[in-house]
């Protein structure tokens, strides 16, 4: 006898992927995440492939993972997927110190972020 199975938090036509501990500030990551929100997955992948932002490659990997989850785990059609949600959360912040002039110290913060991407299958309207 175990715990009862937890109900699925997403709909039947949705799949998600989470990438934790990305070494970038949430503000910078949100710029890239907002670039793909609401787009079809093939257009979003193309945008991320040719983006000049450093973190775009990690966002692309997370999106590909969400697409693979939709295809393999939930049997969704890849051609009709759109990026329903792409949201960013704060993770830990490493604090570092740098010596400055006259015996003072400068605080350096190295933030980490979490990224969640939800893809949804939509019906084609003809």
| Superfamily (CATH H level) name | Ribosomal protein L22/L17
User: Major beta sheet, specifics?
Assistant: 3 strands, antiparallel
Total strands: the figure is: 3
Residues in β-strands, percent: 35-45%
Proportion of helical residues = 25-40%
- Strand line-up of the largest beta sheet: 1-3-2
Order of helices and strands: EHHHEE
Q: State mean pLDDT (0 to 100 scale).
A: 95
> What is the C-level CATH assignment?
Alpha Beta
How would you describe this structure in keywords?
126 residues, alpha+beta, Ribosomal Protein L22, Chain A, 3-stranded antiparallel sheet, 29% helix, Ribosomal_uL22_sf
Textual characterization of the structure:
The longest helix has 17 residues, at 56-72. A hairpin with a 5-residue loop joins strand 2 and strand 3 (105-121). Helix content is 29%, strand content 36%. It has one domain (14-121): Ribosomal protein L22/L17 (Ribosomal Protein L22, Chain A), CATH 3.90.470.10. The model has no long low-confidence stretch (mean pLDDT 95). It has 126 residues and is an alpha+beta fold. Helix 2 (41-49) packs antiparallel against helix 3 (56-72). It has a three-stranded antiparallel β-sheet with strand order 1-3-2, with helices on one face. The protein has helices spanning 26-36, 41-49, 56-72, and strands spanning 14-22, 81-99, 105-121.
